[in-house]
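> forwarded from #structure-qc
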């Protein structure tokens, strides 16, 4: 992910923070600190809150960044809605002083009629104290319920280059929320202030860790069980869908298709008995019926090609590619090695559906001149590769689109994996790889 996209996602996450949230972020670069602070302050100003920014230095840089985001810094300061404090170390500010100041800011904001209060602190101001002083300061903010009582928000920023690993570890422990990458995560390592500030905490820490590990394992087990239930349900739904498609395809072919053929034959028989005017319209009617028959066959094929069940994946894919080329006008080629490759029925179905969806996407969006479909068997794997020379796209931006999600889920439900390589202007290559149940290709069974 490039820096611009990452900051946009961080911004979106930061702007979701609300009353009573207490969050910390660790950063390596000043640009990250500024981007997060500016997003946080801008969201507060938009909500009519009093916004306070405490920095060791660089207040001018934050003010300039706010101005570049369209914030009238001077006007907001003049209204008393924005305050930036720089170099508090020079004034000998201690953690207890800051605790009192935050309480005062929160009280004053309510008296002044602001919609709320939020503070962001670049925590280097606390380096003149001990690690324990800073940790107790953070914990007491939670113990005193400052954030809940005043419906305010607190964001603490720690420069990894300035704080020791031991201090950063303690800071994570005393914050219920942590910014990680471009997400805000609920902290499983958070220790409630009553425990952390207890004189017995050093003795109880090992018990807390064991209890936390047990809870994490329970959550993982529960998540794994839910995922298995989801996969099982999805698998059954897809099987039922394929059965219904097959039944509908047979109905179309055997009933509607045969009825249209019968109508065509009847017209051929009676055309000589019709008046010249009526007889002249028979060829037009025959062409319309022929087109309808072809449409029925196409629909039946797309629902569930009988060829897939009777002759296997290779012949079904070959016909699919040929039909795609004729319908879309795109040059299309298909190769298979070995040419008689077979796989279990559920894998053949998943492979065919993925190819069908990919070709439909190419016809609709790629603006390609050529598409190549390859099916290869290697050792105990079956791989489907579909490449086009179209306009391509940003995989990251479209990764959650329904089409890509559906193809990926189809592959994963039968134990496979789907990957996509693309970039704007560079075409697209899709690879779906399926593990087979034996080192050799096997004929599908109904078992």
């Amino acid at each position: 992910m490039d820096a611009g996209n990452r900051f946009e996602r961080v911004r979106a996450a930061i702007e979701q923070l609300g009353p009573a949230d207490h969050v910390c972020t660790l950063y390596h670069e000043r640009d990250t600190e500024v981007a997060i602070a500016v997003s946080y302050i801008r969201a507060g100003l938009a909500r009519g809150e009093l916004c306070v920014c405490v920095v060791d230095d660089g207040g001018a840089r934050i003010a300039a960044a706010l101005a570049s985001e369209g914030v009238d810094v001077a006007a907001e300061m003049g209204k008393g809605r924005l305050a930036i404090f720089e170099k508090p170390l020079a004034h000998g500010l201690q953690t207890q002083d800051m605790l009192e100041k935050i309480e005062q800011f929160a009280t004053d904001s309510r008296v002044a009629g602001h919609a709320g209060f939020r503070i962001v602190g670049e925590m280097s101001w606390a380096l003149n104290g001990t690690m324990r002083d800073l940790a107790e300061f953070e914990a007491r903010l939670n113990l005193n319920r400052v954030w809940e009582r005043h419906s305010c928000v607190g964001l603490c920023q720690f420069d990894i280059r300035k704080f020791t690993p031991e201090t950063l570890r303690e800071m994570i422990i005393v914050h219920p929320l942590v910014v990680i990458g471009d997400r805000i995560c609920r902290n499983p390592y958070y220790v409630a202030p009553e425990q952390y500030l207890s004189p017995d905490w050093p003795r109880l820490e090992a018990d807390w860790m064991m209890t936390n590990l047990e809870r994490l394992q329970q959550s993982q087990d529960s998540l794994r069980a839910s995922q298995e239930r989801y996969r099982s349900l999805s698998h059954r739904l897809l099987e039922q869908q394929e059965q219904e498609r097959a039944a509908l395809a047979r109905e179309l072919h055997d009933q509607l298709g045969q009825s249209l053929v019968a109508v065509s034959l009847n017209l051929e028989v009676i055309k000589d008995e019709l008046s010249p005017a009526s007889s002249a319209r028979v060829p037009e009617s025959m062409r319309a019926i022929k087109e309808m028959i072809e449409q029925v066959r196409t629909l039946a094929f797309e629902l569930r090609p009988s060829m897939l069940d009777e002759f296997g994946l290779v012949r079904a894919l070959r016909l699919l590619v040929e039909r795609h080329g004729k319908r879309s006008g795109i040059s299309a080629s298909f190769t298979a090695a070995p040419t008689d490759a077979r796989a279990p029925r559920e894998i053949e179905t998943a492979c065919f559906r993925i190819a069908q969806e990919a070709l439909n996407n190419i016809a609709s969006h790629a603006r390609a001149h050529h598409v190549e479909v390859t099916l290869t068997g290697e050792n105990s794997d079956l791989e489907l590769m579909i490449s086009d020379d179209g306009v391509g796209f940003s995989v990251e931006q479209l990764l959650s689109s329904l089409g890509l999600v559906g193809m990926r889920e189809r592959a994963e439900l039968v134990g496979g994996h789907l990957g996509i390589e693309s970039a704007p202007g560079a075409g697209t290559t899709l690879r779906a790889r399926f593990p087979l149940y034996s080192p050799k290709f096997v004929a599908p069974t109904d078992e």
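QC bot note: The first helix runs from residue 3 to 14. The longest strand covers residues 370-378.
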